[in-house]
Amino acid sequence: MTDPRAPQSPFTPSPVLPATLEGSAKLQFHCRKGIACWNACCSNIDISLTPYDILRLKQRLDLPSSQFLGEYTLPYEMEKDGIAGVKLRPVEGGTACRFMTPEGCGVYADRLTACRYYPVALLSMRHQDESFDRQVYAIVKEDHCLGHQEPRQQTIDEYRQEQGLPEYDDLARGWRQLILKKKSSGPTIGKPSKRSLELFFLTCYDIDRFRSFVASESFASIYDIPDDEMRALLEDDLKLLQFGFRFLRQVLFGEASIAIHAGAAAERQARVAEQRARIEREAAERLARDEEGDIAPDF
Ligand code: SF4
Ligand code: SF4
């Protein structure tokens, strides 16, 4: 019981329990129709979408990705890392999910990764001395959720299987790795330019526009992709998405895995060299102007 004389914390306590858990840890939880808190979790949402969540929902609603993003989501910048993210847009003027119905989730078979995980939180991380990512978990305990009081017990891995999460995690792994890579690069890479944020958004979230970009002449003039591979990419959203993650690793972090036409590579090098020379020239001119200004102030 809380001591009423204890000083009050100015911060709202986090519902995420501090322990990090392996998949073998036990979870006592059961969400079932008829429970007194039915739909409470969907009445006040703050949910980020993975690229695969978007793919599933836009296919279910039979919408082009740009229209789905415009009608059902809100863009945001993840933390302070300058990575483009997308959240589910709640009902107009409210906080509830637009897919909530009195019977429960109206898109249950295609519900989001975060909805499947709840009340488990996935924490992807990489130790400094490791070359692979680890999945660890935390438990989220919110007062309104009575599922924790139900007698059912299983491991987190069993719960993930039951919720169809291995598939969701596999197909979002490339995206999570990009985010981890950006976070671990920190100041070395710095805040990405507006152009690279836009490219990240287009590639990860707006798959139909990314398809048009990959099919364009300007893309073909740079990247050397065999015809049959290109056909397969353009016909299959999932292949295109996985290709998109490779493309971003190449463009943002220089991890080359997609062939570039020899001529395009040389042209690009020449363009970069020209750009660098221009930046240096402009900086030198600015410096010279500033120094002149110091000697003969303009007043
Ligand atoms: S998608 Fe379904 S489960 Fe997720 S918040 Fe909306 S109604 Fe709830
Ligand atoms: S038990 Fe928790 S997850 Fe299930 S309906 Fe209630 S609040 Fe939502």
Task: Explain what you see.
The chain has a domain at 26-168. It contains eleven helices and eight strands. With 299 residues, the chain is mainly alpha-helical. Helices cover 46% and strands 11% of the residues. The model is unreliable at 1-10 and 295-299 (pLDDT under 50). Helix 7 crosses helix 10. It is elongated. It has helices spanning 51-60, 65-72, 113-117, 156-162, 165-185, 194-205, 207-214, 217-222, 227-235, 237-253, 262-295; strands spanning 26-28, 73-78, 83-88, 100-101, 104-105, 120-125, 134-139, 153-155. A two-stranded antiparallel ribbon has the order 1-8. It has a two-stranded antiparallel ribbon with strand order 2-3. A two-stranded antiparallel ribbon has the order 4-5. Residues 42, 45, 97, 99-100, 105, 107, 111-112, 115 line the site of one iron/sulfur cluster.
Bound molecules: iron/sulfur cluster
Largest sheet: 2 strands, antiparallel
Order of helices and strands: EHHEEEEHEEEHHHHHHHH
Helix content: 40-55%
Strand content: 5-15%
Shape: elongated
Order of the strands making up the biggest sheet: 1-8
Regions with little confidence, pLDDT below 50 for 5+ residues: 1-10, 295-299
Number of strands: 8
Helix/strand class: mainly alpha
